[in-house]
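Complex 420.
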Amino acid sequence: MDVETVKERAGPREFSPADDMPEKYRKAATRMIQFHANSEIMGAYLEKPFIRQAPSIDRKLAFSAKVQDEIGHGQLLYRAAESLGIKTREEMLDELANGEGKFLNCFHYPMESWAEVPMIAFFVDGAAMRRQATLKSSSWEPYAHAMDKVCFEEGFHVKHGEDIMARMATGSRKEQQMLQDAFDEWWPRIIQFFGPTDDKSTHHDFSAEVGLKQKTNDELRNAFLDAYVPKAKSYGLEIPEYPRIEEVGDGEYHVEEDDLDWDEFFTVSKNEYEPGKGQIDSRKAAQEAVDWVRDTIEGDANLPGSQAAPAAD
Amino acid sequence: MIWEVFRQEKPGDYHTHCGNVHAPDREMAKQFAVIQHGRRKPTESLWVVPQEEVGEVDADEVAFGGTTDKSYRWAMAYTSSTEHAKEVIASQQEQEQAEADRQRGDD
Ligand SMILES: [Fe+2]
Ligand SMILES: [Fe+2]
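Predicted structure with fe (ii) ion bound:
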C-alpha cells in the first residue's frame, strides 16, 4: 500500500499486521506506540517506591495493583509496537535503558511525598485516559485493541487516585497544605502532558493524516481542562495564577501557553533533565538486575521438547 | 488434523473462536473455514490455528481472579460525589458489565 492509499483509507482500526503498510506509516506508528509503552513503564517505576509509603493496608493493596497494571500496559503496548515490524521488544527496552527511548514529561520529575501521589494517580492518569479513550479509534488495530484493555482498567486508577486526593483534601490543615503545594508544583507539568500547541509539534500532521492519532494536542488539552479544572476546584484546590487559565465560555477553559516553560519541556523531552536521567538509570539497573531471569526463561524455551518452543510449520 | 477457526466480523473487531475444521494442511484448512464458517455469518477475516498448538488452562486448575477479595481493583469501590470525566464513567460501566457477567458465571 502506498502512503496516499493509506491516507484515503485511514479510519478507526483500519490497518492490521495482515496489511502491507508503507515504512513511513510503520515508523510513525512505532514512534508513537513505543513512546506510550515507555511512559507506562517509567510511570510505574516512579510510583513504585510509594507502595511502601501507603498509609493503610487497603491503600497499599490498591496502589500496588495499580502499579502492576501500568507494567502490564507497557507490555501490551510493546506487543502492539512490535507488530509493526520495525523494532523488537528487546530493542525498545534497551533503548529505554540507554537513554534513547523517549517518554512523557511528567515521569522525568522526582516524587518525594505522598501528597504528590494523586498528582500522578489522579491528574496524570486522568489526562492519559482522556487521550487513550480517543486512541481506541486509532487506525493501527493492535494499538486500538490495547487501548480497549487499558481503558477498561484505567477507570479504577483514576477513581482510586481521586480517592487518595479526597482523603487529603478533607484531612488536617497540614495535609491540605501539602496537597496544595504538590498541586502548585505539578500543575504546569500536567498541562504540558499534552505537548506544545499543534503548530509547534513536529509529528502531528502525518500521524493525524493516517489516522494513528485522533485528536490534536490542543483539543486534548482543552478537553482535559474542561473536565479537571472543576475537579480540582471541587476539592478546594486553588488553581495557580500561572499559567493563566481563562474560562472562555460555558464550562470551557483555555490556557495561556506562553506562561509555560517550554525550554524545560524540551530539555525534559530529550532526556536531558537531570532527575529524569536518574530515573532512566535506575530502571536500567533494575533491568540488568533481572537479566538472569529472562536469560533463564529464554534458555529453557530453547531446550528440545520444551512447550515454549515455536511450532514447526 | 483439526484446525480451530476464529472469525472477525468487521474490520477492527476481535477474532473470536467460532468452531473448527478437519484439514490436512493450512491451505486446505483456510478453504474449509471459508466454506463452513464464513458463508452465512458476516465475515471480514478468518484465522485457522492447529488445535494441538492451543494451550489451555481452565477453572479447575487455577482460581481466575485470585482467591482473596480484590474489590479494591474495581472502579466501583471508590465513591465520590463529584462528577466524573466521561471516559471514567465509560470504564466503570464496562467493569460493572464484566463483574455482572462473572457473577452470572458463578451461579
Ligand atoms: Fe496505564
Ligand atoms: Fe493508569
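The pocket of fe (ii) ion (ligand 1) is lined by residues A 40, 70, 73, 150 (CB under 6 Å).
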